[in-house]
Amino acid sequence: MMNGKEQDSITLCVVGGGTAGWLSAMILQSEAKRQGCDVQVMLIESSKIPTIGVGEGTTSIFGAVLQSLGISQSEFLAKTDATIKYGIRHKDWRRLDHCYDGPIDDPYALSDKIPNAGSWIDTFCVAAGRSVTEPHLFQALMTSNKAPVALQDGRPVALSQFHHAYHFDQAKVGVFLREKSKGITHIDATVTDVIHHAENGKLTALMLDNGDKVTADFFVDCTGFSRRLIGKAMGVPWKSYGDILPVNRAMPFWIDLPKDDIPTYTLAWAQSSGWMWQIPTQERMGCGYVYSDRHLTPDQAQAEIETTLGLSITPRADIKIDAGRLDRVWDKNVLALGLASSFLEPLEATSIHGTIVAVLLFCNRHLSKLTTISDQDRTTFNHAIAGQVDDYCDFINLHYVSERQDSAFWRDVANDYIQTNTREKIAQWQTKMPSSGDFANALDGLPHVEELLHYPVLDGLGLLNQTVARQTMSQNPKFRNFARDTVDHLSKQSKLLASQALSHREWLTSLHQ
Fold first, then answer.
1. CB atoms closer than 10 angstroms to residue 241
2. Euclidean distance between CA atoms 312 and 294, whole angstroms
3. Burial of residue 362, with CB atoms counted within 10 A of its CB: 0-12 exposed, 13-18 middle, 19 or more buried
4. What are the E-state strand segments in 365-448?
5. In 400-417, which residue ranges form alpha helices assigned H by DSSP?
6. What is the DSSP letter of 5?
7. What value, to the nearest 5°, has the Cα angle with vertex 468 and ends 397 and 490?
8. Which of 284-288, 369-373, 454-458 has the lowest mean pLDDT?
9. pTM of the prediction?
10. What 3-state DSSP class applies to 256?
């Protein structure tokens, strides 16, 4: 209800399909229904536009969204050949032959009766010289490549209350989501032209290559790098992160799965001039080399990967990366989501996560009052999303703080790409342990990059101070004892549960039967 009367019926048009487009359309439709809004959703995508589809990882929020949309995990895994992701394994980032993991579960949630329990647990681990990942169940499951279930009376039972993440082929997931959607008008066409309102500049209609004209009240741009609406039609400028993030090309390719079990983590493997991702689906391993063309030619990049892997590869593309974000993701009656709004190297699975958070924030704040949106509403929303992506960029920049000096790339990274605010945060955390107060969240409490994700990276890169951790522990013996007992208990429990879990491959295979 608004001003004593119901909001007028709204027609909302999503342009672009794939994972971002269909997921956004389905969330918008679901949220409109939940809020009692009269919103009709349509989606325009072209079957003529190919997708590269070489593997993508999510964060845990993706599973929560599937659940809210009434999509079962078993059906999703069986029909998309997706796999389980518990976190990221970082290889050779700190130095050659060094590896650290970043599990994404939240053992702190089990200790919510203690203020700042997470920081106490992590601080204890640093003080004791133990990895901060030790009490994580997902760490134990990553190490052993186990499924998130165990058999109980012959039936699979979930091991944990935590949402894990997924690996998948974007093309297959886009098709799956389209098939699961109900009540969304689907148009197979390409936008050839746009029509603006003569006075206020809003979009009013789209001309399609099939000769049709589509009108709508609000438009969502999910057209990826082309930014067909927000960039070309609305003229919103792009803010580059080229001076912050050192890689600017990506060479995707496929390789075969390992013969034993299927990994339950994304591998981020640092190379001479960037890093390689490896993302398992049930069929094959989606890979890519994200590199700097200031240091390697495409031929040299391919040769390095073939030497590293000991096999020949067939690159599916060689993509120029212009990392950055839009100056504003919402302009007049056009909202950009997915790759149309921002693009970062896929080091921390920020793309789909950012899309989900942005569309949920939009729905929570604005979906019920689209006919009365003010300039201040748009400004506040744009500021929140800009901060979200800037924080992602800072977090990725932190990963490049390395001891490596074995190539021109790593020497240039150390000299030219580690940002002042990254150095200031590291200096701050040499004198105090990270805590929740160090991280801002302008996203109404929706999941963001905060201390839970920072601790494994800081610990893995050797950027936390054991002396400071011990001093912090000594200030409160009660919390020190709590942290010690909690870490010991969770570590033992995690290893026990992992020993009972099914094999990842075995469980995935069973879902097809």
1. 21
2. 24
3. buried
4. none
5. 408-412
6. B
7. 80
8. 369-373
9. 0.95
10. coil
